[in-house]
Amino acid sequence: MQSKKRSLYEAITNVMVGYIVAVAANLTVLPAFGYQVTIFDGAAIGVIFTLISLIRSYVLRRIFNYFD
Questions:
Q1: How far is CA 11 from the centre of its chain?
Q2: Is 45 within 8 Å of 22 (Cβ atoms)?
Q3: Full-model pTM
């Protein structure tokens, strides 16, 4: 069983890696579709999608815990 402290470290690492991947994807994928994206744009979009991902993960976890 994972300790609460280790779970926190895992969650923080997951969010950090997800954010880095999101920014890299924004800077790579959006220009391929004709959008001009600066590093600031990519970072801001990454924050938005990271927040959406956190909310989605939390809601799904609560739903699964409800039915467990």
A1: 11
A2: yes
A3: 0.79
Contact 26, 45 (CB under 8 A): yes
Dist CA 24 CA 7 (whole Å): 26
Eight-state DSSP code of residue 37: -
CB atoms under 10 Å from CB of 46, counted, come to: 20
Tokens matching residue 3: 């300790």
CB-based contacts of 39: which residues, under 8 Å, 6+ apart? 23, 27
Residue whose pair of structure tokens reads 């924004």 in the numeric block:
26
Handedness of CA 31, 34, 38, 44 (dihedral sign): negative
Sign of CA dihedral 32, 35, 55, 9: positive
pLDDT of amino acid 39: 96
